[in-house]
């Protein structure tokens, strides 16, 4: 037996690493790569260290290194190869894929130094917006799956969410551009009971660098107050995220009320509860990804601040 920390099934490893469960089994048998615990019903369970190992090996294999060569490397050599991939990637996709896995490891280890290094490396190379779109959003999607299925603790999820939130706030404050007088007016808010704010904060950043006037109300905001503000201030767009605050019936009721109350306003909604579904409400557009917002908001404005 390993420890009580063994908690990942082989399907969890497949989903988090992108390596098929069948392939992981073969590696395990052929190379003695992993030594999982087994439940009484013979289900494999892996621990954090084995997940981190699979993430690193997956990065090297996806970059073209044969598994027969990877398994001969010492832990320090694997780390060095990962560092080389980050320093000299063959493509942006390869770079971001490796860094997503680096952030998963930073979260598992509660390692803020590693987190800061990954973010600063990505931002210097690609800028903050691409770092958010191609690194942090995919990472948060992976964390969301891990948290919902019990593979990440609340402590780990809060640790990493607070670090990311701080980065987005710094980027918003650093942007020096001013919206033109005739810019669209946007209202950003979360419904009452909705607390997951990072997507909404990043949307504020995306809109600001595209020259929009943004009024940000944040978490758990009463709908009546939003409607009153929009009517009084000639708001053109409203954006909200819905992740977990409603049942299915409650979501339909809320969105119908929001749409009917703001019939002259373009309403946009994103988040886990609406992603992938068609809008069922008039004047409401569903955003499947945060990056879809750029299609609505248009191109960035030039700014003296690099971001």
Quick overview of this protein structure:
This protein is α/β, with parallel strands linked by helices.
Would you write up a description of this structure?
By secondary structure, the protein is of the alpha/beta class. It folds into three domains: 88 residues, Multidrug-efflux Transporter Regulator, Chain: A, Domain 2 (Orthogonal Bundle), CATH 1.10.1660; 83 residues, Methionine synthase domain (Methyltransferase, Methionine Synthase (B12-binding Domains), Chain A, domain 1); 121 residues, Rossmann fold (3-Layer(aba) Sandwich), CATH 3.40.50. Helix content is 54%, strand content 11%. The strands form two sheets. Strands 4-3-5-6-7 form a five-stranded parallel beta sheet, sandwiched between helices. Strands 1-2 form a two-stranded antiparallel ribbon. Helix 12 links the parallel strand 5 and strand 6. Helix 5 crosses helix 6 and helix 8 runs antiparallel to helix 9. The radius of gyration is 22 Å and the shape is globular. The termini are far apart.
């Amino acid at each position: 037996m390993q420890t009580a920390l063994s908690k990942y099934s082989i399907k969890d490893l497949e989903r988090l690493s992108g390596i098929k469960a069948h392939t992981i089994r073969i590696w395990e048998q052929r190379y003695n790569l992993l030594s999982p615990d087994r439940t009484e019903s013979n289900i494999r369970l892996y621990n954090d260290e084995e997940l981190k190992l699979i993430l690193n090996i997956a990065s090297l294999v996806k970059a073209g290194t044969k598994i027969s060569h990877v398994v001969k490397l010492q832990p320090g050599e694997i780390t060095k190869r990962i560092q080389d991939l980050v320093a000299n990637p063959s493509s942006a996709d390869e770079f971001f894929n490796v860094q997503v896995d680096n952030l998963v490891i930073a979260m598992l280890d509660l390692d803020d130094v590693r987190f800061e290094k990954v973010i600063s490396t990505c931002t210097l190379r690609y800028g903050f917006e691409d770092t958010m779109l191609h690194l942090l959003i995919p990472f948060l999607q992976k964390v969301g799956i891990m948290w919902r299925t019990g593979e990440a603790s609340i402590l780990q999820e809060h640790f990493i969410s607070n670090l990311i939130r701080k980065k987005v706030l710094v980027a918003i404050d650093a942007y020096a551009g001013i919206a033109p007088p005739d810019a669209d007016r946007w209202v950003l808010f979360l419904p009452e009971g909705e607390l997951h704010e990072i997507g909404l904060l990043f949307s504020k950043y995306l809109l600001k660098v595209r020259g929009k006037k943004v009024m940000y109300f944040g978490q758990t905001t009463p709908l009546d107050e939003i409607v009153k503000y929009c009517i009084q201030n000639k708001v053109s767009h409203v954006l909200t995220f819905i992740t977990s605050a409603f049942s299915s019936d409650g979501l339909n009721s809320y969105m119908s009320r929001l749409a009917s109350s703001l019939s002259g306003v373009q309403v946009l909604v994103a988040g886990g509860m609406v992603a992938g579904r068609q809008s069922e409400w008039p004047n409401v557009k569903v955003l499947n990804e945060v990056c879809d917002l750029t299609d609505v908001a248009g191109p960035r404005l030039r700014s003296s601040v690099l971001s």
